[in-house]
C-alpha cells in the first residue's frame, strides 16, 4: 500500500515570503493543522504547524511549570494577543525543516515516521521534490486498518 | 619558595579568570586547576596528594550535601509553589503587596535553604503569577534574587560563604543568629525599601486581571501533602538542632546529613530521582577550590598576603574590618564569592596566628561576600539563575537593568553593614 493512494491532493501551501498573519489566515480558512512552505517551483522547503503559531500566544509559565492544573483562570493571559510587529514578521522565523516522504513510500513506514517525530500530517513529495499531497494520521491509520476486514 | 609561589598563584589566577569569563563550565575549570595544582606541587615538592585531601573541608561539603538531599526531596512535593500561591492570594492581586510578600517568603526560605535552590523554585511560580495578573515579572524576579542573597547572610546555612566561614572559624548557628541576623535584618529592610522605590513605576501599574490569582488553588499545588509534611517535620527538627549543635558538640554537617538520612528512611523515595536533583557540580567545584587554595597555602603565597595585610592592619582595627567588607564586596560583585571566601579564610586565619583579634574579621568577610553578590548580574549564582530563566521569556532581564537595581542595593546594604559593624565592633 503506497502513500500516494491515500493522501489529499488539493494541498494549500504558502511562499516563505508570507507573514505570520497571512499564514494564520490560511490555517483559519482551510481548518488545517500543518501548512507546507514552498518555493516558486512548488518545491517543499519547510513546514509550519498550528502548534508553532499557538506558541506565540501561550504564556511563558507553561514552559516552566510542569503541572498547570491548579491554575484555574489564566487571567490576563487569556486576552493577550501577540503584538502587531510579531504578526507582521516573515513566517520563516517559525518555519521548521520539513520531514517528507516520496509518493511510493509504504504506509507502515510513514506511520512509524509520524509516531517517532510526533507529526499529525505528513507532506508527500514527487521525485523532484515538489509538494504533491499531505496525508494525515487518520488517513494513514484508516487505510492500514481497512485491510484487516479481509484477514481470514 | 619563589618559583612555587609564582606557579601556584598563576594556576589559581588563571582558574579564576576562566571562571569569570564563563568560557568553560566552572566545575570543569576547577577540576583541571586542582589537578594541575597537585601535579605542579608534587614536581616542585611543595604540595602532596595527602595535603590536598586534607585541604578539603568535608564539614562544608557534608552540610551542603545534607541540605541538598532534603531540598531534593521537598521540591517535587510542590511545597514551594504552595507558598507562592498563598502569597499571591494574600496579596489580592495588588502589586506592591505581592512584591513584599514574595520578597519575604524568598528571604525566609533562603535563610535556611541555599539561595540558588530558593530562587530556582520560586521564580517559575512568580512568572506564572505575574502573567495571569498581566504585569511584568521583572521587579519580582530581580527582588527575589537580591533579597535571597541578602537574607542568606543571616544564618550559618543561608549561603555558601557562611557555611565556609562558620566551618573554618568554628562559628555556630547561634553565633550567626546573635551577630549576623540583627545586622542583616536592618540591611534587608533597607534593601526592600530601596527596591520598592526603584521599581515604583512598575509597581504602580494596575494589573489587567487581579481576580485571576484568587482562583489559584493552593491545595492543588501539593502533589504529595503527606510526604511534604514528613520532610518539613524533619527539616524543622534539623533547624532546631542547628540552634543547639554547639552545646551538643555535634557539627552542622552531622545535623544536615543526619536529617537527610532520617528523611530518606521515613519517605523512602526513588533514590536515583533524589540524587539526580543534587547539584554535584557545586560540590565538586568547592572541593576543587579547596585543593587549589591548599596549594596556595603550601607554597607560601597566603603567608605573604598575610604579611601584606599585617602591614595594612596597623590602621585602626575597625577601619580594617570595614575596608575588608568593601574589598570583599567589590571582588564578589565581579567574581563568584565562593573562591574569594575560600582564598581569604586561610589569610584571616594567618592573621589570627600573628596575634590579631580576627573574630570581627570573619563577620566582615561574611557581610562583604554576601552583600557584594548583589551588584551585578554575574555577582551571585542566584542572579545568574534568574537572568537565565528570564531570557527564556518575553521579558528578559538585561545586565544593564541589573546594575541599575542591584548596585544601589549592594551599596546600601554594605553601607548599613559598615555603619553597624563600626557601632557594634566592641561586641563582636
Description of the structure:
The complex is a heterodimer of chains A (152) and B (428). Chain A has 152 residues and is of the alpha/beta class. Chain A has one domain (3-150): CBS-domain (Roll), CATH 3.10.580.10. Helices cover 26% and strands 17% of the residues of chain A. Chain A is built from five helices and six strands; from the N terminus they run βαββααβαββα. Chain A has helices at 20-30, 50-54, 84-87, 107-116, 137-146; strands spanning 14-15, 34-38, 44-49, 101-102, 121-125, 131-136. In chain A, strand 2 and strand 3 (44-49) form a beta hairpin. The longest helix of chain A has 11 residues, at 20-30. Chain A is globular, with a radius of gyration of 18 Å. The two termini of chain A are 19 Å apart. In chain A, 22% of the residues are buried. Chain B has 428 residues and is mainly alpha-helical. Chain B has a domain at 1-55 and 282-301. Chain B is built from 22 helices and no strands. Chain B has helices spanning 2-21, 26-43, 49-55, 58-74, 79-91, 95-112, 115-133, 138-152, 160-169, 173-198, 200-204, 218-221, 225-248, 252-267, 271-276, 280-298, 301-312, 317-334, 337-353, 359-372, 381-391, 399-424. The mean pLDDT of chain B is 92. At the A-B interface, loops of A face helix 7 and helix 12 of B.
Spans of at least 5 consecutive residues with low confidence of chain B: none
Taken in chain order, the helices and strands of chain A follow as EHEEHHEHEEH
What is the CATH architecture term of chain A? Roll
Query: Given this structure, which CATH class of chain A is correct?
Result: Alpha Beta
Fold topology:
The complex is a heterodimer of chains A (152) and B (428).
Chain A: E1 14-15, H1 20-30, E2 34-38, E3 44-49, H2 50-54, H3 84-87, E4 101-102, H4 107-116, E5 121-125, E6 131-136, H5 137-146
Parallel strand pairs in A: 1-2, 4-5
Antiparallel strand pairs in A: 2-3, 5-6
Helix pairs in contact in A: 4-5
Chain B: H1 2-21, H2 26-43, H3 49-55, H4 58-74, H5 79-91, H6 95-112, H7 115-133, H8 138-152, H9 160-169, H10 173-198, H11 200-204, H12 218-221, H13 225-248, H14 252-267, H15 271-276, H16 280-298, H17 301-312, H18 317-334, H19 337-353, H20 359-372, H21 381-391, H22 399-424
Helix pairs in contact in B: 1-2, 1-16, 2-16, 3-16, 4-9, 4-14, 5-6, 5-7, 6-7, 6-8, 7-8, 7-21, 8-10, 8-21, 9-19, 9-20, 10-22, 13-14, 16-19, 17-19, 18-19, 18-20, 18-22, 19-20, 20-22
Amino acid at each position: 500500500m503506497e502513500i500516494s493512494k491515500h493522501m489529499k491532493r488539493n494541498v494549500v501551501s504558502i511562499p516563505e515570503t508570507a507573514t505570520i498573519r497571512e499564514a494564520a489566515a490560511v490555517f483559519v480558512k482551510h481548518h488545517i493543522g500543518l501548512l507546507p512552505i514552498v518555493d516558486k517551483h512548488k518545491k517543499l522547503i519547510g513546514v509550519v504547524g498550528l502548534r508553532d503559531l499557538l506558541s506565540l500566544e501561550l504564556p511563558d509559565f507553561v514552559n516552566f511549570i510542569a503541572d498547570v492544573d491548579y491554575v484555574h483562570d489564566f487571567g490576563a493571559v487569556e486576552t493577550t494577543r501577540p503584538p502587531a510587529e510579531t504578526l507582521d514578521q516573515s513566517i520563516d522565523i517559525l518555519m521548521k525543516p520539513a520531514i517528507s516522504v516520496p509518493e511510493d513510500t509504504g504506509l507502515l513506514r510513514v506511520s512509524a515516521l509520524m509516531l517517532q517525530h510526533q507529526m499529525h500530517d505528513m507532506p508527500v513529495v514527487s521525485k523532484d521534490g515538489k509538494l504533491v499531497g499531505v496525508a494525515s494520521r487518520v488517513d494513514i491509520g484508516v487505510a492500514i486498518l481497512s485491510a484487516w476486514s479481509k484477514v481470514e | 619558595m619563589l618559583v612555587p609561589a609564582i606557579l601556584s598563584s598563576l594556576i589559581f589566577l588563571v582558574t579564576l579568570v576562566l571562571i569569570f569569563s564563563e568560557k568553560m563550565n566552572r566545575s570543569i575549570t576547577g577540576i583541571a586547576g586542582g589537578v594541575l595544582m597537585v601535579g605542579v606541587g608534587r614536581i616542585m615538592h611543595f604540595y602532596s596528594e595527602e595535603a590536598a585531601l586534607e585541604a578539603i573541608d568535608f564539614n562544608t561539603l557534608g552540610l551542603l550535601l545534607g541540605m541538598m538531599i532534603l531540598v531534593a526531596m521537598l521540591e517535587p512535593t510542590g511545597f514551594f509553589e504552595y507558598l507562592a500561591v498563598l502569597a499571591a492570594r494574600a496579596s489580592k492581586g495588588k502589586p506592591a503587596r505581592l512584591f513584599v510578600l514574595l520578597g519575604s517568603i524568598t528571604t525566609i526560605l533562603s535563610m535556611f535553604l541555599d539561595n540558588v535552590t530558593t530562587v530556582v523554585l520560586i521564580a517559575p511560580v512568580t512568572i506564572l503569577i505575574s502573567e495571569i495578573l498581566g504585569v511584568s515579572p521583572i521587579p519580582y524576579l530581580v527582588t527575589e534574587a537580591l533579597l535571597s542573597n541578602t537574607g542568606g547572610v543571616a544564618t550559618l546555612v543561608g549561603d555558601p560563604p557562611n557555611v565556609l566561614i562558620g566551618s573554618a572559624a568554628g562559628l555556630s548557628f547561634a553565633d550567626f543568629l546573635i551577630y549576623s541576623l540583627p545586622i542583616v535584618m536592618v540591611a534587608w529592610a533597607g534593601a526592600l525599601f530601596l527596591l520598592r522605590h526603584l521599581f515604583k513605576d512598575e509597581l504602580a501599574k494596575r494589573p489587567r486581571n487581579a481576580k485571576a490569582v484568587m482562583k489559584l488553588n493552593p491545595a492543588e499545588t501539593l502533589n504529595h501533602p503527606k510526604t511534604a509534611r514528613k520532610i518539613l517535620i524533619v527539616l524543622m527538627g534539623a533547624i532546631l538542632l542547628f540552634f543547639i549543635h554547639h552545646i551538643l558538640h555535634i557539627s552542622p554537617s552531622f545535623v544536615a546529613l543526619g536529617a537527610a538520612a532520617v528523611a530518606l528512611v521515613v519517605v523512602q523515595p526513588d533514590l536515583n530521582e533524589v540524587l539526580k536533583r543534587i547539584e554535584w557540580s557545586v560540590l565538586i567545584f568547592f572541593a576543587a577550590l579547596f585543593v587549589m587554595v591548599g596549594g596556595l597555602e603550601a607554597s607560601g603565597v597566603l603567608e605573604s598576603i598575610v604579611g601584606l595585610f599585617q602591614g595594612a592592619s596597623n590602621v585602626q582595627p575597625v577601619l580594617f574590618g570595614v575596608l575588608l567588607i568593601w574589598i570583599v564586596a567589590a571582588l564578589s560583585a565581579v567574581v563568584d564569592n565562593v573562591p574569594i571566601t575560600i582564598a581569604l579564610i586561610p589569610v584571616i586565619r594567618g592573621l589570627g596566628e600573628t596575634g590579631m583579634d580576627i573574630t570581627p574579621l570573619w563577620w566582615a568577610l561574611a557581610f562583604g561576600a554576601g552583600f557584594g553578590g548583589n551588584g551585578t548580574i554575574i555577582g551571585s549564582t542566584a542572579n545568574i539563575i534568574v537572568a537565565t530563566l528570564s531570557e527564556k521569556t518575553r521579558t528578559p532581564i538585561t545586565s544593564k537593568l541589573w546594575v541599575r537595581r542591584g548596585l544601589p542595593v549592594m551599596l546600601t546594604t554594605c553601607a548599613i553593614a559598615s555603619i553597624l559593624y563600626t557601632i557594634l565592633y566592641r561586641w563582636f
